[in-house]
Amino acid sequence: MLTLDQRAIQELARDFAEGEIVPVAGQWDQKRAFDREVLDKLAGLGFLGMMVPERYGGLELDLATYLVAFEEFARGDAALSLTIHIQNGPVPVILLDHGTGEQKSRWLPALASGDRIAGFALSEAGAGSDPASMTTRARRVDGGWEISGQKKWVTNGGLADVMLVFARTGGADAGGRAIGAFLVDTDAPGYRVGKREKTMGLRASETVEVELDGVRVAGDRLVGNPSHGLRYALEALDLGRLGIGAQAVGIARAALEHAIVYSRERHQFGRPIASFGAIRSKLSTMATRIAASRALVMEGARAWQERASGRAGGDVPVTARSAMAKLMASETAAWVTEEAVRIFGGYGFMREFPVEKLMRDAKVTEIYEGTSEILRLVIGRSLTA
Description:
This protein is about 50% helix and about 15% strand. The chain is of the alpha+beta class. The chain has three domains: about 5-115, Butyryl-Coa Dehydrogenase, subunit A, domain 1, CATH 1.10.540.10; about 120-225, Beta Barrel (Butyryl-CoA Dehydrogenase, subunit A, domain 2); about 230-385, Butyryl-CoA Dehydrogenase, subunit A, domain 3, CATH 1.20.140.10.
């Protein structure tokens, strides 16, 4: 059950999505870009700083309330929701948990207001599921650090004003495999946006390569300990997986809603197809799996919040709970959207109808922030270690 405050946030997010996102999501998909103005409108309502404390200009929502709102944005358009999630999730949370007071005062208000759009650069061509094997390096120089390397599959790589970049610092601890996290201005000399990928889904979202060729950053751009960046990233990964879980629920919910409307309108053999048992069976299973996925995401949010506040997260570790939520929700989204296409029949295969886009968007939720195979390893390890 949602609280009154959560319902108010949900309704505000839903109204925004219905008015500002849903009518143009198909156009964004076709032109492979969303309108930058939508970010300004989101910022005006506080939706770019949902978990940022009020003293830094944010809404200071708890994680569960944030995910309730985020589901609504994902229902409107998954591509835009990914940018919203990066802006609200891993970057500000890492700053809050590990940044200095000066870093928080400088960057959190800029992120919450939308004055600065954030990106997150962790993965590399040979370091996707295994980020510890990254080759991007940061070496100490007078006054700061110099970073060189190439990042892959970077969301907001061209859109972002500041990128949280993870690079090997070569510290003596961790056997020379120490990694740091750095705030890098995207207009810095040596920062270059490379090829934009042609993706199956999330077509309005930028997915690019980023090259860092001797990019200089001042010492105050290092977040936390120069050897602990990978730990920070993995902590943020729990949050990221819960966000992708909520995104998947939003995609699946949109597909179910379209399928219900279409099944009532489409007539065969003299009656709406919604009256046939086979269609009702599909819709009921779709709705049940969506509800179960949402419940797992909310349970993961509760455990994450307890860990963040210093309390235990229950018998199952938070990392395993977030993996369960993302696994269930992403596989549900892929299945539900495919079933929606089947309900639409031949029209489901046509780009003029919305479920085709939703099926394309759903597929990547099974891949990023941990593939389904990796998530099963994480869950299995928690049960047998």
